[in-house]
Amino acid sequence: MQKIPTVFVRDFSARPAYVTEQPDPRCRWVLDGEGTPTRKYDGACTALDADGRWWARREVKAGGTPPPDYLPLHTDEETGKTVGWEPIEQSGFARWHAEAVAHSDLAPGSEGTFELIGPKVNGNPERSEVHRLVAHDTAERLDVPDRSFAGIRETVLALAAADGCEGIVFHHSDGRKAKIKARDFGPADPF
Fold it and tell me: What is the pTM for the complete model shown?
């Protein structure tokens, strides 16, 4: 799992580092109208591997000690954070994940990544009444008619205001992804 780049370049000279109107060159395809936009769920990222083992996404800060059995995948050059996986049973979300799995209808061989959402996960911004797993590859498709900075900002902030949507993930047909979250925009935004 490589960290998905943000559609627009961040201003790391400010804290927090909000996005600027400048597109990230790796994500220019989004502004060119390519890719399918889907809902970015606000929960805890989990993965089921081919061996049937569950993992939780975990970031380790620069200089931090990774947890036991941690599988590092990528270190962000700007922040120094390492993204990787830890066994789900070590995660603070283990109890809620077990509840979600028990109530899911996952077919055998359903490996992939999922978002754990529910009442005890991140303050429940998704407003889910029960703990559940949402497969990333079946995320809700969204309409983003205006792919400019202003159009994307307006859509993302309207979705967040309407039902707690964290943001959008754009999926290119060649496998590339790009994301944008409501909190990526500064407080001066009118929404």
Answer: 0.84
